[in-house]
Amino acid sequence: MLSYRHSYHAGNFADLLKHLTLIYLLEYLNKKDKPYCYLDTHAGAGFYDLKSTHASKTAEAEEGIWRLNDQQLKHPLLVQYRELISQLNTTPTTRYYPGSPKIASLLLRSTDRLLLNELHSKDHESLKAVMQNDRRCKLFQEDAFTLLKASVPLKERRGLILMDPSYEKKEDYAQVIKALEAAHKRFATGIYAIWYPVISRQDTERWINQLAQKLPNILRIEHCPLPDTSGFGMSGSGMLVINPPYTLQDDFKPLLSELEELLRQGTPGKTKIQQLT
Ligand SMILES: C[S@@+](CC[C@H](N)C(=O)[O-])C[C@H]1O[C@@H](n2cnc3c(N)ncnc32)[C@H](O)[C@@H]1O
Question: What is the active site of this protein (predicted)?
Fold first, then answer.
């Protein structure tokens, strides 16, 4: 039984890093005419109202997307991200926030495909409603790790797999590594983007080391607006990108510095971008 609902967390600081990385990777794939496939293994509800009772209860957008209100954004990716969100809103303050499937549907071309998977029945229903007019989408309601294995290689032989688990079960961490290993064996050239939370610094480092021992060519991107703890709440989050575009690291350095300033909570935040070996 899944209890995590992304409607409580949409538009938080972690969504910013994840969705900026997603936009960058999709635009990279858009540079070539050849069609590709986007597979979202943990798709969520697709679209969120930041004034809903769920979102209002946690008010996480206040330390996330709402920090961008009235700011002079410099990095072109931040400008693009804000423009994309403003297409969905009629007021300058963001009320409606796109989840990863909606962002992808706005950026993919008519020849590309979206495979969207969400296990939670309520969120799956919402996702279905959000995507109902998009004929490029195929929806699934399966276990993400099983579905990933069955879906690769993607028939286009070009694609992005976003893996964004809620990690509400401890086993999810081991499952991510196992599923990625199996998928990478079948589809070694795909781009894989995996989101992770930083809750306990020690556990995060241990898990990333394990993953890097099993999988090659990973770029780690991390942003922590809060100081490390040994396991009390999320102090930051990161993305692991397997087979990253060679431009990603250099393009993201100034973006991370800007993000760090925009999302600062008291003490200066910390960011990191590094190729893992
Ligand atoms: C962080 S949310 C996804 C947010 C979404 N990717 C976005 O960026 O808008 C994680 C989602 O994974 C779903 N989920 C958790 N475990 C799953 C599993 N084993 N298989 C499929 N979905 C799962 C949860 O119901 C939740 O909606």
Answer: 164 (proton acceptor)
Is residue 143 in contact with ligand 1, taking CB distance under 6 Å? yes
What's the Cα-to-Cα distance from 20 to each of 124, 177, 237, 255, rounded to whole Å? Answer: 24, 23, 13, 9
Q: If you take atom 9 of ligand 1, which residue's CA is the nearest one?
A: 99
> Which of 2-11, 21-30, 186-195, 260-269 bottoms out in mean pLDDT, i.e. has the lowest?
260-269
Calpha distance 15→249 (Å, rounded): 19
* Domain spans in the chain, listed from the N-terminal domain onward: 11-47+99-276
CB-neighbour burial class of residue 26 (10 A; exposed 0-12, middle 13-18, buried 19+): buried
| Neighbouring C-beta atoms of residue 87, cutoff 10 Å | 9
Ligand 1 within 6 A of CB of 190: no
Residue 46 CB–ligand 1 contact under 6 Å = no
Is 124 annotated for ligand binding? no
168 is in an annotated binding site: no
- 11-47+99-276, CATH topology level: Rossmann fold (3.40.50)
Render 16-72 in DSSP notation, one character per residue: HHHHHHHHHHHHHHHTSSS--EEEESS-TTSEEETTSHHHHHH-GGGGTGGGGTT--
Clarify whether 164 is annotated catalytic.
yes
pLDDT per residue over 24-68, tens digit each?
A: 999 999 999 999 999 999 999 999 999 999 999 999 999 999 999
